[in-house]
Specification:
Helix content: 25-40%
Number of helices: 6
Shape: elongated
Order of helices and strands: HHEEEEHEEHHHEEE
Number of strands: 9
């Protein structure tokens, strides 16, 4: 609560930060993202700087959005992990393209990413799964993510107990239906708020040769 109260008190001062100018931006959007993300990680007012909105298209062509956590990124793309039998996993199986949205209110900054999606390797998924808390590992087995929980909380508790017993004397292995996805960026947009909604927006578009072209957009 203190975090939010301080942010509310300081909000008017956020508008005093300087504008976003082309000369301050890096030529590579991943390097620019790294700079912004590190800034967000250092910000006291941001509890989940790694939180991102993930938008997909369902099998019947309807948009879906939910929040997930960014687990890693590099020049190959932005990685998150999930149950591949979930709604988002099903959507990506039929339409392997997605959009990501990062919004850091305390910094008055936003980043949008769109691109195709690919599954990360089994080795990468295994490494990340092994780093998760044991309770989260058990949950990956016990949760039939996105499916109706007909039996209520009691049913879920029974499933958790079942897998806790199964792995009582051994490490928890990764379920085959659980793994990572990488959003390979094709367009990346950086947005910074300014007074009177005269916001700064810069868009990077990947070219066929892998280079990036940057342009300023109207707010």
């Amino acid at each position: 609560m203190l975090r939010h109260a301080l942010l509310f008190a300081l909000r008017p001062w956020l508008w005093l930060s300087g504008p976003l100018v082309a000369s301050s931006l890096r030529d590579d959007p991943i390097e620019e993202f790294d700079h912004w993300f590190r800034m967000a990680q250092r910000c006291f007012f941001l509890e989940f700087p790694d939180g991102m909105a993930l938008s997909t298209i369902s099998r019947d062509g309807r948009p879906q959005v939910r929040w997930v956590l960014l687990k890693e990124f590099d020049h190959r793309g932005f990685v998150f992990y999930t149950n591949r039998d979930s709604q988002k996993g099903e959507a990506l199986a039929h339409h392997p393209h997605a959009a990501l949205g990062f919004f850091w209110d305390a910094l008055q900054r936003q980043i949008r990413v769109t691109g195709r999606v690919e599954e990360v390797s089994a080795d990468e998924s295994d490494r990340y799964f092994s780093s998760r808390p044991r309770g989260s590992q058990i949950g990956a087995w016990a949760s039939l993510q996105s499916r109706p929980l007909v039996g209520g909380a009691e049913e879920f508790s029974r499933r958790i107990a079942e897998y806790e017993s199964r792995f009582a004397h051994t490490s928890v292995t990764r379920p085959e239906h659980w793994g990572g996805y990488r959003v390979v960026p094709e367009v990346v947009e950086f947005w910074k708020a300014r007074a009177s909604r005269l916001h700064d927006r810069f868009e990077y578009r990947r070219q066929e040769d892998g280079t990036w072209v940057r342009q300023r957009l109207y707010p």
